[in-house]
Design a protein that fits this description.
Distance between the termini of chain B: 26 Å
Strand order of the largest sheet of chain B: 2-3-1-4
Largest sheet of chain A: 6 strands, mixed
Helix content of chain A: 25-40%
Distance between the termini of chain A: 26 Å
Helix content of chain B: 55-70%
Oligomer: heterodimer
Structural class of chain A: alpha/beta
Shape of chain B: elongated
Radius of gyration of chain A: 17 Å
Shape of chain A: globular
Strand order of the largest sheet of chain A: 6-7-8-3-9-10
Number of strands of chain A: 10
Largest interface: A-B, 26 and 18 residues
Number of helices of chain B: 10
Chain lengths: ~220, ~300
Amino acid sequence: MISLQHVTKIYKNSVVALDDVSVEIEKGEFVFIVGASGSGKSTFIRLLLKEEEATKGDIYVAGKNLAKLTPWKVPYLRRNIGTVFQDFKLLQDKTVFDNVGFALEVIGKPKHVIDQRVPEILELVGLGDKINNYPDELSGGEQQRVSIARACVNRPLLLLADEPTGNLDPTTSVDIMRLLDRVNRIGTTVVMATHDQAIVDAMRRRVIELDAGKVIRDQSRGVYS
Amino acid sequence: MFRRFEYYLREVTSGLRRNGLVAFAAVSTTFIALLLFGLALLISRQVNLMIEATTGNVEVAVYLSDPVNPQTVDALTQKLASLPAVANVTYESKAEACAKFKQEFANQPGLVQGVSCDPKDNPLPASLRVKLAHPEEYSQVAAVLGCRSDGTCAQPGVDKIYDFRGLLDRLFAVTRVFRVGVLLVALVMLIAAAILIANTVRMGLFARRKEIGIMKLVGATNWRIRIPFLIEGLFESLIGASLAVLFLFGLKVAFINPLYGKIQFVPWVTNSDVVAVIPWLVVAGALVALIAGFAGMRRFLDV
């Protein structure tokens, strides 16, 4: 699913975000990327989306070499990748339904597909009764569920989550992790960057630890440190 | 297809609502720019009409004396056409001259009624219309027909020769200055309109940067993101163009219509001349909007 081969990323201000990183992630895996702030977790995620380009090395996502992907093909790559962020990135002037439907609408899916899939996925994330609410009427955990629903509504092969529990209290975080686990069990590969120790320790999944841009640990069924 | 259309329509109208004031500025600048552009086009049309009426677009007219002998016409045509200075010679019969006169002054009934095209009392002379390949060698034509400086000629069958070069030169010089002036102002206004449209596009992009960010994340193509903004700019400039067309019609009705028939021998622009200007305004407006749209979006949409 994902392959990084000797990837180095140096930003314009000569900050080295990733330094000779090689990682293989198989289809269907659940992987935590852990490390302190500035260790390169977010860069890792951004590289997989081709929001940034590697300075050196090769990155393959879903069989595609990202360096060779022409700009007009990038949107089609992203249609196979769901993304979830710490700040939810929901549109405040749209209802829950429209926020999730938006992801399908802007890639040109017809209305009957939207009308079918959006309630389905909202039911799955446990928000079947909040379809017509606006984001500011929801709790943080519920908003994150909406954003997970939006990320999954197009049935992506890969879900990237950058600190998805960063803004949530511990109990809500556990709920969100259950949901991500469920998404993973239906076959979606999940890569989650986090520094939430309790969650990593509880899940017992593969852990890749970054420090100053280098992989210092890659452990299956690992703990935070 | 319909769904996509509906999507774009919704995006465009919400965009226009959001930055109403800037959109208004863009529309009014486009309006003024296109109005001036249309004005310049109509002025040159008016001047061309006047030139057409006075000279028939030839540089030298050789008027033949009545009655016209067909053999003389052939002989003179050949004689003139063989001169190196002459590009072409066309014969205009009395009947043709009369028909043309009536057509040119169709909106001045007083003038037309006084002229009869009946062969017996048609007052208009037959002529050879000469277009020169080298206008500066006019003297060749005058010499071969034995014409004097007052325009009368020794050649039998020729009544008079008339040299329009001086008149044409003066008309062209005056109108060129005028037309270039108006076009320059129109150009400056069009550039201002383009900057304002680019600005509305940019403000729209800024106001919706969060939405655009999400669209990019979920894999919307760049065109999907761009098209609503391009249509928005296009819409603004086309409203400007429509206003300009309406205004041009208004100006024509207010200032040209009262002149119909007032000044003898001068034809005026008609409604169909104004209609003929519309495509130019629309094309100019659309081009400005598209260029401005792309300029406004540059760098903003890099993946």
